[in-house]
Write a structure and sequence with these properties.
Strand content of chain B: 25-35%
Structural class of chain A: alpha/beta
Number of domains of chain B: 3
Largest sheet of chain B: 12 strands, mixed
Low-confidence stretches of chain A: none
Radius of gyration of chain B: 28 Å
Shape of chain B: elongated
Oligomer: heterodimer
CATH superfamily of the largest domain in chain A: Metallo-dependent phosphatases
Order of helices and strands of chain A: HEHEHEEEEEHHEEEEHEEEHEHEEHHH
Distance between the termini of chain A: 42 Å
Mean pLDDT of chain A: 90
Number of strands of chain A: 17
Helix content of chain B: 25-40%
CATH class of the largest domain in chain B: Alpha Beta
CATH topology of the largest domain in chain B: Rossmann fold
Chain lengths: 394, 513
């Protein structure tokens, strides 16, 4: 929230003509109300300063029936969703929105879950958009195949050739890493990346020195300047530890010794543990203990990345991508065989699905105005339902 | 109904059986013929035709002279169809038992047996295999029989395919037909390095028109059409061994590359171009030559502001980080990937092929060591003008490259080549011997025909004339996976597509955004 507030403050300070957010303004289509409240307060400030906010859906705040928080805020006039179109003879004809102050023409295609927006790009009436005159911005929320970082090679993406050519600026969202590039016909394709970070990998990259922020684009008839505005709201401390050639006991002791002397006060500490233990369980290296130690040393928050940690006692699992649900599914499916259980419903796909359903339940947060007791009861009930024991336990 | 007799075996020996043609029997070179036996039949093929006559030569000469000079213009031989005829030289290809068991003939057909033209029912043993690759229809001489010819894709592509022919004989047409037929098969991943941009169908019918193209075809071009991928490879994806056999380096240059790579890993090229100091190990002159070579091949240089730049359309210092991974992934999913290299210079084209093919080959080596190779689809690399990388002179001068490695070792790792060439004679025999399927199209160059025949899976020593007389679209398939060298007629790709296309249904899309 602090990063968003800071970005909006910069926009107001710089007196920009408008703000364009290429998706995922919120982390869910119906986010927590306190988050909405904070965001709305800040956006109201921006709007009152005479700066319109244009948005498209991202893959997180997308709603297939237009009932996202984005639609609600659009209805209030606080923000303007710039995606509208219809199928005309098998081609997607997008409406062009014009910013009244600058006369910039804005067109967008929202993101959807799992890269499903690709269908829209494939049927897009590009020719009509390409013929449109004036200063044009195309907003979208999809990874571009040619610009994906290597670690996202498996991620759903669209080739740049699916975008309409000749726009002055392609405002891109979805990929969390900042990229500026251009191709013949697509002069300026810019991914600003995340303002702060939604996944551990983002925070790890930030801790390794990647700058976070957004772009201010100056233009007349054409783009005159594209300036990256850094948004930094906290300091990071990055610590990487390789467990190779150590057993779990040795590695844990050595790691905690080393972590005890790092300077973590008032910082977000990012700890990456990797390598293959020569013996013992990976769980012997307790994330809880690491977190407690760093918190005691004043860390604002602790992020622990142990995806690269394996043990010779257990088969290694290769993981590609960063989508948490996908990773969970794969990890559960690939490791469930190592758990010895007699009941068939706890084995293989059934077991993995059950575990995932249970995780989903346990992840639910306490609702506003919900008492702790009600919360515990609700979670217990849902957990028992997920386990298929709802009727057996009273 | 008795089948029409075409001729009768009158003499000969194994591999050279003589049959007198019945008047009007119309035996052609390449004709498939059948000699019936008590327990089945033998399939034969005509490879040479000569005249035969009961009339002495002097008499024939005299008679021709009289007709030509206008003396006795109405004269003719007494019962000419009896006295003058054609003798066909034929060879036995296959013996088919009464229960359709197939054997290579080790005895001659019955002496004085009658022969007839082969018909569809004689070739019912040519069934559709698993993972079929379509090649065309059986051809008997210049006549087409309604019998489809397929080869098993997994077997055939793993053991390499050679397609030799001179220009205009239909090499690309054949490969297009093959690719179309296997496009939806996810057990076959095929990488096509396309120097003429002719397979995708940018300007006409092509693989893009296949109903499964959206799911099964990937197209990369430096000038992509809408919906296809830009061919751009990040400089960080290039490793020193990708240049192996593609670009000439001296020992000193190779040492310098190794040093920079071990020091800077995926930024080795940038650091060479920047002349980053790494001690006295590399002479300044060596570095200068390397910079010049990389500038030529990759288009990399340092600009006036001291920034590392890349002017190439295909290599980039910002984009294309995931390109090779995406291509490899697509191939591993059994997709067909067409790389349009038509706008690239020769070395850049071969380097791109080396990066991708090398990536796949090494990945498959890893799968083998992990024990998971058998779960993976076979991958085949289509390389045009194969002697550029498989030519004896190239291999001698520059050493092995990834293609020669695949030709020699790929079979063990389920990676094969489909090598297309006009000049087979330039490819070493050791490599030709590894190419277990040869789809031979017409070739008027005797030396090239000889090179093909010498390395064929079946004995084609008597087929020199048949190969020389192959018309456009006609071919002979000689393979370890066919029981005999099958003459085929390859369909015209456009016609083949037309026959295999079904009209698409259109649904209205509801747009939500």
């Amino acid at each position: 929230m602090a990063a968003f507030n800071k970005a909006m403050d910069i926009c107001m300070h710089e007196n920009v003509d408008f703000v364009l957010i290429s998706g995922d303004l919120f982390h869910a289509n119906l986010p927590d109300m306190h988050v909405v409240n904070e965001a709305v307060k800040k956006m109201k400030e921006v709007k009152d300063a005479g700066i319109p906010l244009y948005v498209i859906y991202g893959s997180h705040d997308y709603s297939p029936n237009c009932t996202s928080i984005i639609d609600i805020l659009d209805s209030t006039g606080l923000i303007k969703k710039i995606v509208k179109g219809e199928d005309v003879d098998g081609k997607l004809r997008l409406e062009i929105f014009t910013d009244s102050k600058t006369q910039a023409k804005l067109v967008g295609i929202s993101g959807r879950k799992g890269g499903l927006e690709k269908n829209y790009f494939e049927m897009l009436d590009r020719e009509r958009l390409e013929k449109e005159e004036g200063f044009k911005i195309f907003a979208f929320h999809s990874a571009i195949s040619e610009l994906k970082p290597e670690f996202l090679a498996q991620m759903e993406s669209i080739p740049v050739s699916l975008l309409p050519k000749g726009f002055d600026y392609y405002a891109s969202g979805h990929v969390h890493k900042r990229t500026e590039s251009g191709f013949s016909g697509y002069e300026r394709v810019v991914f600003p990346g995340v303002l702060f970070g939604g996944y551990p990998r983002d925070l790890e990259d930030s801790a390794k020195g990647e700058k976070r922020g957004f772009y201010i684009v100056s233009f007349g008839a054409k783009v005159e300047n594209v300036k990256f505005m850094e948004v930094s709201v906290c300091n990071f401390e990055y610590f990487e530890y390789d467990v190779s050639d150590k057993n779990s006991v040795q590695a844990k002791k050595d790691l905690l010794d080393k972590l005890s002397i790092i300077e973590a006060k008032d910082k977000i500490a990012v700890v990456k543990i990797k390598g293959e233990l020569s013996g013992g369980k990976t769980s012997d290296i307790s994330s809880g203990e690491i977190r407690d130690l760093l918190k005691e040393n004043g860390a604002m928050d602790v992020i622990i990345n142990r995806y690269g940690l394996t043990s010779k006692d257990y088969a290694s699992v290769k993981i590609v991508g960063e989508d948490v649900p996908t990773l969970e599914t794969r990890l559960l499916r690939e490791n469930i065989g190592a758990v010895k259980v007699s009941r068939e419903e706890l084995k293989a796909d059934n077991g993995a699905k059950l575990a995932q359903d249970l995780l989903k339940v346990l992840r639910q947060e306490q609702k506003l105005n919900e008492t702790r007791r009600d919360y515990v009861e609700r979670i217990q009930k849902h957990a028992l339902d997920a386990l298929g024991l709802g009727d057996e336990v009273t | 109904m008795a089948l029409e007799i075409t001729g009768q075996i009158i003499a000969g020996k194994t591999g050279q059986i003589l049959a007198r043609e019945k008047a009007g029997g119309e035996i052609e070179i390449g004709d498939l013929l059948v000699a019936e036996e008590d327990e089945g039949y033998v399939i034969l093929q005509a490879y040479e035709l000569v005249y035969g006559s009961q009339v002495p030569q002097l008499v024939r000469e005299l008679m021709a002279g009289m007709k030509l000079e206008g003396i006795g213009a109405n004269m003719d031989f007494l019962e000419p169809q009896l006295r003058n005829y054609v003798v066909a030289q034929i060879k036995a290809l296959l013996r088919v038992g009464k229960n359709s068991e197939l054997k290579i003939p080790k005895t001659l057909p019955k002496f004085f047996a009658t022969i007839r033209h082969a018909e569809e029912k004689d070739l019912l043993f040519l069934t559709k295999p698993k993972n079929p690759v379509y090649l065309g229809k059986v051809r008997s001489g210049s006549k087409m029989l309604d019998v489809d010819v397929y080869v098993n894709g997994v077997d055939t592509l793993t053991h390499h395919v050679l397609i030799p022919a001179t220009t205009g004989r239909g090499k690309s047409n054949l490969v297009k037909v093959m690719l179309w037929s296997v496009l939806p098969q996810d057990c076959l991943g095929i990488l096509v390095l396309d120097p003429h941009d002719e397979y995708y169908g940018r300007h006409g019918k092509g693989l893009k028109d296949h109903p499964s193209a959206k799911q099964c075809l990937r197209y990369y071009s430096t000038s992509p059409v809408a919906g296809t991928n830009t061919l751009v490879i990040n400089l960080r994806s290039i490793l020193p061994w990708h240049f192996q056999g593609i670009v000439d380096f001296t020992d000193a240059q190779r040492d310098a590359i190794s040093l920079y790579y071990s020091r800077f890993r995926d930024q080795w090229i940038e650091n060479i171009v920047r002349s980053t100091e790494i001690g006295d190990a590399v002479a300044p002159r060596t570095l200068e030559v390397l910079k010049r070579k990389f500038d030529n091949v990759l288009g990399v240089y340092i600009d006036d502001h001291g920034d590392f730049q890349c002017r190439s359309r295909v290599f980039s210092d910002t984009a294309g980080l995931a390109t090779t991974r995406e291509i490899t992934k697509a191939l591993e999913e059994g997709k067909k990937v067409v790389i349009d290299t038509s706008r690239l210079l020769d070395e850049a084209e071969l380097l791109i092929g080396s990066i991708i093919s090398g990536g796949i080959f090494h990945q498959y080596q890893d799968y083998k060591s992990e024990g998971t190779l058998e779960e993976k689809p076979v991958i085949s690399v289509v390389i045009e003008e194969a002697p550029r990388v498989l030519g004896a002179d190239v291999l001698t001068a520059r050493g092995d490259n990834i293609y020669s490695t695949i030709a020699r070792e790929g079979r063990k790792f389920r990676v094969g080549l489909i090598a297309i060439t006009q000049l087979v004679s330039l490819i070493p025999r050791t490599i030709l011997a590894n190419m277990n399927t040869k789809i031979i199209l017409g070739n008027e160059l005797a030396a090239e025909r000889q090179a093909v025949m010498e390395s064929a899976a079946q004995d084609l020593s008597s087929d020199d004339r048949a190969i020389a007389s192959l018309d456009k679209g006609e071919a002979i398939v000689s393979s370890n996976f066919t029981r005999f060298a099958v003459p085929i007629q390859i369909p015209l790709f456009e016609k083949y597509v037309e026959d295999n296309l079904q009209p698409k249904e259109k649904n209205k899309t509801v747009f939500v955004g």
